[in-house]
Amino acid sequence: MIRRWVSLEKRRFKNKDLNMELDLAYITPRIIAMGFPAIKGETIWRNPLSDVLKFLDTHHKDHYKVYNLCCEPDRQYDHSIFYGRVAVYPFADHNCPPFDMITQFCIDAEKYLKEDERNIICVHCKAGKGRTGLMICNYLLHTRQYATADKCIRYYGYARTKNMKGLTIPSQIRYVMYFEQSLYQAHTIPPAQRLILKKFTMNPCPVFDKGGCKPRLVILKEDIPIYNHIEEHPVLTRFYSKDGALTVEVSKKDGSPVILSGDVKMVIWHKKRNMMQFTINTRFVRQPLLVLQKFELDKAVSDKKHKLFAADFKLTLEFEKIKKDDKQKQKEKERKEKEIQKDERKDGSNSNQKDNEKISYFKQRNE
User: Fold this and answer.
1) Predicted TM-score of the model (pTM)
2) What residues make up the domain containing 12?
3) Per-block average pLDDT, block size 10, for the chain (367 residues)?
4) Which of 118, 197, 309, 344 has its CA 20 to 30 A from that of 188?
5) How many whole angstroms separate alpha carbon 260 and alpha carbon 221?
6) Active site residue 125
7) Are residues 163 and 199 in the same domain?
8) Exactly one of 122, 125, 137, 152 is catalytic; which is it?
9) Do 30 and 140 reside in the same domain of the chain?
């Protein structure tokens, strides 16, 4: 069966009476994780929406709410299919949500479950594993069903899969650990923190071609690039593994610093190949140096045979906190930019007014 093959090691729900088999698992008696409810040709390998609806109406009629974590346009559906009991908390596949979205999801899910002891929630993304696991693990932490991120991740792996590999993307695991810190160490975590990224070091140099690589850093915020090394510094440096570690300075072409805040995704490329990527939130960066081991880096973690990255590979990011003087300068810069924009709008408005006056004048002359 194609659907069973696509599910790989994920646990499936089977019901002979209803004559259905779904990529779906009860993580707890009141929390379901499942794959995307599909229509048309995609039902060959994904859960048919009609079967999902039949299952929910049979087992939890009038007492379920569906949470869609997909941001892809083709992964949306009419909420009336599930009687309007649908909430969307969208973020990209293999990625992390904005950190604040996690709390919003948890509060909404908890509120619904508290309304009636018969209520259940059904959480899905596309495959119903990574994004779904991230949010469910955080909910288990939020409601204190498990005390630590590690225990939540282990339990989810057991409940969702046969091979204990439920949540496997390093950045997604990191965000569950962040959430644990926010619950138990809130007094030590700043509400917001702006940092300057000074440089990054890869040790040892990865081997992608000709015995080394030409690293290019791209930084994204809300999926929008805010820094691209090659645009700021068009000539890339080639590094070789025989030389050991490599360090790349990070700055804009005018010498101004690269300032980061909140959720940021960083991707390090070699030519057109994504060597590694990772998402962090600056609130949780405690030291000037953030060291990430190979197993903490998306993409790099997949190099099991160490052909591209050494087994002891690590990436070090060097940050600097923004000083009060720098903050004041930045605020002043932002204030001036707003004033310029305001003046431009005002000039545009005055120009339109003058044009209208001219039109009115010529109309009067022609009458």
Assistant:
1) 0.85
2) 1-184
3) 50 74 94 89 76 95 98 94 98 97 98 98 97 98 97 97 94 98 88 94 96 97 96 95 96 95 98 98 95 98 97 98 68 68 62 50 42
4) 197
5) 9
6) yes
7) no
8) 125
9) yes
